[in-house]
Specification:
This protein has 696 residues and is of the alpha+beta class. It has four domains: 80 residues, Peptidase S8 propeptide/proteinase inhibitor I9 (Alpha-Beta Plaits); 315 residues, Rossmann fold (3-Layer(aba) Sandwich), CATH 3.40.50; 107 residues, Immunoglobulin-like, CATH 2.60.40; 120 residues, Sandwich (Jelly Rolls), CATH 2.60.120. Helices cover 18% and strands 28% of the residues. It is built from 15 helices and 35 strands. Strand 16 and strand 17 form a beta hairpin. Helix 10 packs across helix 11. GO terms for molecular function: serine-type endopeptidase activity. Belongs to the peptidase S8 family.
Length: 696
């Protein structure tokens, strides 16, 4: 499994015509180092000069482009999202759009996933397809593990029990599974017959329909480090043809989407790939990658898939911890845990209340790409329990094409070996035999449909109401037993966008306790009591949908997120307008706001020998978004000192300690790092207080 770091909503959209998800293919790969360089700032790994913007309408997008002095790189119309190239650092640039009219969210182009993959065990792969080369002899294995040519314990009657499902006629016929990964080998002997006929490079927006051209594309990258997607694809769709291995859904088709080339291409291109797969006939999306964090765009892309009836499966992760990783933790997604040969959770697998089920993920035998010698290899990770789960979902979709994502999930969960919940394996280890037994009862025997919930948050205080932007929303099933490892009560989390809305797709029906907290003070600044909280209930009804969701309106007693604050010291934008202050002064709350390049000037009288300490309290100490920058000038406007961060990359407030050389007037100038380095920064959350002290 590969690592990903990464608020918000998606209105229901009809499935658009094939190929309509993005601009026309260009075939051109971005090469500008300023647009493609990956950097890490404040713990956020992103493409240095790229910003992702979710917009409400075309006018808002164009105004944001003008405000940033940006160039549009690409667009995903279905998600109303655009990728912009900016001159300044993207993390800082995105903050200037917080609260910007018509902008639903703005975030740096995240690149939190790193390569190589973090699957814990990958044994050397053999060239050629022979049994002898792998040291795996059919006579050395139980005969019921030979389902094609090579032994596969994962599919035997003690694990997935694949043959029982196949014999009943459930092999994934008519189902397309998108392999959202590094580029899968469509020419491998076990995969060629089940390629869906298209493959996609989301970076250049190019669709490949020719196998040789696809392999040439792969070989133009770094093929020595591209194998993961082939392993994953063979877990699902390897043909049952008397050679090599078989996938759990051996008559399903696979659709490669290359989001690792071999490094992670960034959230925008991942979202573009997800939308393309949905628009091009995928019934199931397999995601054998993940990490920590929360990103608006990727959440919306998966919501788009769920809203269009597409099942989404994600590997839980290989952190060995009880924790929620994304995308496995997003509402509506089926999260898979890796099991060993004893049907128990592996030591490396991530686990927790959010997981759905377990499947084999230790030393499973899968296909090795032809550019690395072909043949087969043993490999481990939740990266492979995930596609076994996607393949099991394909058995359901093949039998019942109209089954909703939640129905598919519950069909898998109610037919496991254990039939009971634990945080280590969800509802238990998948069992294709009992799944087939359920399907033989007809599609009316499937579990009931899930729910779609829309939450609208507004803030209310003495000045009236305002949109509940940037609020955290938690849905917790009633009766949840904290600390009980066998409690299956669902719990979901999402964050509102700048319109105050949060969506939960394909979740369990039932009565929920809803917890809402106002905007994170780390972003907006302020006092804890100004954030506000709400606790109530809502009912998620079975069968509610993207077009007719269950709705909850929450009125939160909280300080509104002030998108047009008043600075008590303005105008103080030049030396002649400087606001006088004295030693031992701490100013009121002030803002770097109101123009693209706001410099706030303060004057004070000093004497020769005075050692002064000037401190800006900003994001690191009082919250908000201001990464401050502080200058000290003398009366002749000579720069005496300047400071960006008190501790580089950790404490982004600014501080200057300086001994004055003569009597006279001096000036402190506060601005943002972005402005100080030539960019624009006009964020209403750019709040600060300036302190001036004499220390001798």
């Amino acid at each position: 499994m590969k690592r990903l770091g990464w608020n918000s909503w998606l209105l229901a959209l009809a499935l658009l015509a094939l190929g309509a998800c993005t601009q026309a293919p260009t075939g051109q790969r971005p090469t500008s180092p300023t647009s493609s360089a990956v950097v890490e700032r404040e713990g956020v790994r992103h493409l240095q000069h790229q910003v992702v913007v979710g917009y409400a309408d075309e006018g808002a997008l164009q105004e944001a482009i003008r405000h940033l002095g940006a160039t549009e790189v690409g667009r995903i119309p279905e998600l109303r999202a655009a990728l912009l190239s900016v001159s300044q650092d993207a993390l800082k640039a995105s903050r200037t759009l917080k609260g910007f009219p018509g902008i639903r969210y703005a975030e740096p182009h995240y690149a939190m996933v790193t390569a190589p993959k973090d699957d814990p065990v990958e044994k050397p792969k053999a060239s050629g397809g022979g049994v002898e080369a792998l040291g795996l002899r059919p006579l050395g294995n139980p005969s019921d593990q030979i389902l094609d040519e090579l032994p596969q314990y994962a599919l035997d009657p003690r694990h997935l029990d694949a043959k029982a499902a196949w014999d009943a006629g459930y092999e994934g016929q008519g189902v397309v599974v998108a392999i959202i990964d590094d580029p899968a080998d469509v020419t491998h002997p076990d995969l060629a017959a089940n390629w869906a006929g298209k493959a996609y490079d989301p970076v250049t927006n190019t669709v490949y329909t020719d196998a040789e051209a696809w392999v040439n594309f792969i070989e133009s990258l770094d093929p020595a480090n591209i194998s993961h997607g082939t392993f994953v694809a063979s877990t699902v769709s390897a043909a049952k043809d008397g050679q090599g291995i078989a996938g759990l859904a051996p008559k399903s088709k696979f659709l490669p989407v290359a989001i690792f080339q071999p490094s992670y291409v960034g959230d925008f291109y991942v979202a573009r790939g997800i939308v393309w797969a949905v628009n091009n006939g995928a019934h199931i999306l397999n995601n054998s990658w993940g990490g920590l964090g929360y990103g608006n765009l990727v959440k919306e892309a998966f919501d788009y898939a769920l809203a269009n009836g597409v099942v989404v499966v994600a590997s839980a992760g290989n952190s060995s911890k009880d924790e929620v990783r994304t995308p496995a933790g997003y509402p509506g997604i089926i999260a898979s845990v890796a099991a060993d040969g004893n049907r128990e959770k592996t030591d490396f697998s991530t686990y927790g209340r959010h997981v759905s089920s377990a499947a084999p993920g230790l030393d499973v035998l899968l296909a090795n790409p032809t550019w690395l010698g072909g043949g087969y290899g043993l490999i481990s990770g939740t990266s492979f329990s995930g596609p076994y789960t996607a393949a099991a979902a394909a058995l359901v979709k093949g039998a019942c094409p109209s089954a909703t994502p939640y129905q598919v999930r519950r069909a898998l969960e109610t037919t496991t070996w254990e039939g009971s919940f634990s945080r280590e394996k969800g509802w238990g280890h998948l069992n294709a035999r009992t799944l087939a037994n359920l399907l033989q009862g007809g599609c009316t025997a499937l579990p009931g449909k899930g729910s779609v919930v829309r939450v609208k948050v507004e803030y209310q205080n003495e000045r009236g109401r305002s949109p509940g932007l940037l609020a955290d929303v938690i849905l917790r099933g009633q009766g949840l037993r904290p600390g009980d490892p066998t409690d299956p009560t669902p719990i979901y989390w999402a964050r509102t966008d700048q319109n105050g809305e949060a969506w939960f797709y394909e979740i369990a029906p039932g009565t929920y306790e809803i917890y809402v907290a106002g905007a994170d003070l780390a972003l907006t600044g302020g006092l804890p009591e100004e954030r506000g909280t709400f606790v109530g209930t809502l009912v998620a009804n079975p069968g509610s949908s993207a077009s007719n969701p269950d709705f909850k309106w929450v009125l939160l007693n909280a300080a509104e997120v002030n998108l047009n604050p008043t600075d008590p010291y303005e105008p103080n934008d030049s030396l002649s307008q400087a606001t006088p202050i004295a030693y031992e002064t701490l100013t009121q709350l002030a803002y770097i706001y109101g123009g693209p390049q706001d410099f706030n000037w303060f004057s004070f009288q000093g004497q020769a020998g005075d050692t002064i300490k000037a401190r800006v309290y900003a994001r690191s100490s009082i919250g908000g978004t201001l990464d401050s920058y502080l200058y000290l000038y003398d009366a002749n406007r000579n720069l005496l000192a300047e400071n960006d961060d008190i501790v580089s990359g950790q404490i982004t407030d600014s501080e200057i300690t300086f001994t004055l050389s003569q009597d006279g007037t001096y000036y402190l100038v506060v601005t943002s790092y972005t402005i100080a380095t030539g960019g624009s920064d006009d964020n209403p959350f750019n709040k600060y207080r300036l302190e001036l002290r004499k220390t001798n």
